[in-house]
Write a structure and sequence with these properties.
By secondary structure, the chain is of the alpha+beta class. The chain has a domain at 386-498. It is built from ten helices and 23 strands. The strands form four sheets. Strands 2, 4, 5, 7, 8, 9, 10, 11, 12, 13 and 14 form an eleven-stranded mixed beta sheet that branches. It has a seven-stranded antiparallel beta sheet with strand order 15-16-20-19-18-21-23, with no helix packed on it. A three-stranded antiparallel beta sheet has the order 1-3-6, with no helix packed on it. α8 (286-303) runs parallel beside α9. The protein is globular.
Length: 501
C-alpha cells in the first residue's frame, strides 16, 4: 500500500472536495458571437470554486463577485449603448469573443413558432429559401435553445453547447434552420433600428402552454389553475401513460418541463421580451387559456427578473375548424396585460394546413408592435382594429373601432361577403352586410362607393330578419377568414359585442 505524506494527503483531500467546475465557467448563453441587451443592466453569471473571486470585464467595465458555497456567482454590467463592435467578455480566464450590444428577444411556442425558414417543402416558409439566400447581416444573430428534451427540474446549463450564428446564407440554409417567424421579426427590427439584434429560439411542435410556464407563474394564480399547478410532474423513470390527462398527452407536456429544459439555463439573461405563437394544443380548454397566458407571462417576468418584459403573441390563424373560444381567450389576455400585445392573422390562414406557409406577415406584425410600443415609432399603426363602441340606428348597427380610420374589402377569390352576423331580441344571429360598402361591382346604399371601399371610418351593418339589432359578432362562421382591412392593412380579429344599455 502506498503511503502519502501529510501534505500530499491534504492536497488530495482538498482536490476531492473541489467541484468539477473549479475553473471559472460562464453560463450557457455566454458564447462567441452573442448579443447583449442594450440600455439595461446585464446579468453575467456562471460557476467557480466556492469562495473564488470572479472579475468580469467588458467594454471598459470591471465588476467582481465572490462565488457562493454552491459555486454560483453573478455580476451585473451597467447599461450600455448599442455597439456593432465585436468585443471580448472575460470572467477571470474564461473568454467569450465577438460580443455585440443591441436588442435581444426570445421566440417561443409550438409548431407555428418552430416552422423553419428553410426546411421540408411542406413545413417551411414559402419564401424562406429566397430570404436565406439574400440575407447577409453579420450583426443579426440567432441561437437555438430547442433540444427536444424535457426535464422535471430546472437545468442550470444547456444540455449542449450554445452557438450564436449570423444571419447569413450558410447559417439560415442549414438544417434545422431557425424559426421563420423569428427571422422575419429580427429582420424587421434590424431594418428599423439599425442596431445589432439577437434572438433565441425555444420551441417544440405539439406542445401545450403549461410545459413552457415556470413554477413562478403559478404564484398567486387563480384556483382555476390549481390542477395544473399541483400536477405531480414525473421524471422519465416514473412516467406512465396512465398519467395522461388533457392537455398533458405525454411526458413532455407536463407543466414546467420544457421551461426547465430549454429556457431555465438562460435565466436571468437581460432581454427586451418574448414573441409567442402557441394555443392549438390548448384549444380544448379555452376557458382556462387566458389564466394560463397570465401565468406564462408572470412566470417569465419573475424568472428573468424583468417586470417590464414584453410578450407579443399571435392569435391563431384560421384552419378547417373553429378556434372561436381560444380566439376570445387570447383577445381577453391581450386586453388585460399591459405588457402584452396580440397580432391578428385572420387573413393569412390555410384551411388545409394548421401551419400557414406565409410567416413574413406574422413576423413583421410582431415587429410593428415592438417598434410602436418599445422603440418610439409612434406613427406606426401596429394594432389590428378592436371594437370601441356599438350603437343601434333603426334596423342598422353602427360599429366604431380603435385603430381604424377607414376600411377596404379584399379577397383573392373576389367574394362579396364579409362574415358579420347580427342578433336581435330573440338572440338568433343572422348574416349581415356592410351597407356603406360596395359588393360585386354594385354600389351599396351609400352612393359613390367603389368596389372594395367603405365610406367613412365606421361600419354600418344590416341583417335581413333583424329589425332591431342588439348584438354583433365577426368570424364566428366558416371560413373564419377576414376579407376586411383597416387602411393600415391590418384586419380586425374575431370579436363579439352588443349595444350598451
Amino acid at each position: 500500500m502506498i503511503r502519502l505524506s501529510p501534505f500530499c494527503a491534504f492536497v488530495c483531500a482538498l482536490c476531492a472536495g473541489t467541484p468539477a467546475f473549479a475553473e471559472v465557467r460562464l453560463a450557457s448563453p455566454f458564447a462567441d458571437g452573442m448579443v447583449l441587451q442594450r440600455d439595461a443592466a446585464v446579468p453575467v453569471w456562471g460557476e467557480a470554486a466556492p469562495g473564488e473571486r470572479v472579475v468580469v470585464a467588458f467594454a471598459g467595465q470591471r465588476v467582481a463577485a465572490i462565488a457562493g458555497a454552491d459555486g454560483r456567482w453573478l455580476v451585473r454590467l451597467a447599461p450600455m449603448a448599442s455597439s456593432k463592435e465585436g468585443r471580448v467578455l472575460r470572467a477571470n480566464d474564461a473568454r467569450v469573443s465577438d460580443v455585440l450590444v443591441g436588442e435581444v428577444w426570445f421566440c417561443c411556442g409550438q409548431s407555428n413558432a418552430e416552422v423553419p425558414l428553410v426546411g421540408h417543402p411542406h413545413y417551411s416558409d414559402r419564401e424562406g429559401c429566397l430570404v436565406a439566400a439574400i440575407t447577409r447581416l453579420d450583426d443579426v444573430r440567432y441561437a437555438c435553445a430547442s433540444d427536444y428534451h424535457w426535464s422535471p427540474v430546472p437545468r442550470e446549463r444547456s444540455r449542449g453547447a450554445v452557438r450564436w450564428r449570423r444571419f447569413r446564407p450558410e447559417n439560415l440554409m442549414r438544417q434545422p434552420s431557425f424559426s421563420a417567424v423569428g427571422v422575419y421579426f429580427a429582420l424587421a427590427l434590424h431594418e428599423a433600428l439599425g442596431v445589432p439584434i439577437g434572438i433565441v429560439g425555444a420551441y417544440r411542435g405539439g406542445t401545450n402552454i403549461d410545459a413552457w410556464t415556470p413554477r413562478e407563474g403559478y404564484e398567486g394564480a387563480p384556483e382555476s389553475l390549481a390542477e395544473t399547478r399541483d400536477f405531480p410532474v414525473a421524471g422519465p423513470a416514473e412516467w406512465t401513460d396512465a398519467m395522461k390527462k388533457d392537455p398533458v398527452s405525454g411526458p413532455e407536456q407536463q407543466p414546467t418541463v420544457l421551461w426547465n429544459e430549454m429556457v431555465a439555463p438562460w435565466c436571468p439573461m437581460s432581454m427586451r421580451g418574448v414573441i409567442w405563437y402557441q394555443g392549438e394544443h390548448n384549444a380544448a380548454e379555452s376557458a382556462l387559456y387566458c389564466d394560463k397566458m397570465h401565468a406564462l407571462y408572470d412566470g417569465w417576468a419573475k424568472a428573468f427578473g424583468n417586470p417590464n418584459l414584453k410578450l407579443y403573441f399571435v392569435q391563431l390563424a384560421p384552419w378547417h375548424e373553429s378556434w372561436w373560444d381560444i380566439w376570445m381567450a387570447q383577445a381577453a389576455f391581450a386586453a388585460e396585460e399591459p405588457n402584452a400585445g396580440m397580432v391578428v392573422t385572420a387573413d393569412i390562414g390555410n384551411s388545409h394546413s394548421i401551419h400557414p406557409a406565409d410567416k413574413g406577415p406574422v413576423g413583421r406584425r410582431l415587429a410593428a408592435l415592438a417598434l410602436k410600443r418599445d422603440y418610439g415609432f409612434s406613427d406606426i399603426v401596429a394594432d389590428s382594429p378592436t371594437i370601441r363602441a356599438v350603437r343601434a340606428e333603426g334596423d342598422r348597427l353602427v360599429l366604431d373601432f380603435n385603430d381604424a380610420d377607414g376600411w377596404y374589402i379584399y379577397s383573392d377569390d373576389r367574394r362579396d361577403s364579409v362574415p358579420f352576423e347580427l342578433a336581435g331580441e330573440d338572440g338568433e344571429y343572422r348574416p349581415a352586410r356592410i351597407v356603406n360598402a360596395a359588393y360585386g361591382g354594385q354600389k351599396a346604399e351609400t352612393a359613390g362607393v367603389e368596389q372594395g371601399q367603405v365610406a367613412g371610418r365606421e361600419l354600418v351593418l344590416r341583417a335581413e330578419g333583424v329589425p332591431r339589432p342588439l348584438k354583433v359578432r365577426y368570424l364566428f362562421q366558416r371560413p373564419w377568414t377576414s376579407a376586411l382591412f383597416a387602411m393600415s392593412g391590418l384586419p380586425p380579429g374575431p370579436f363579439e359585442a352588443d349595444v350598451r344599455k
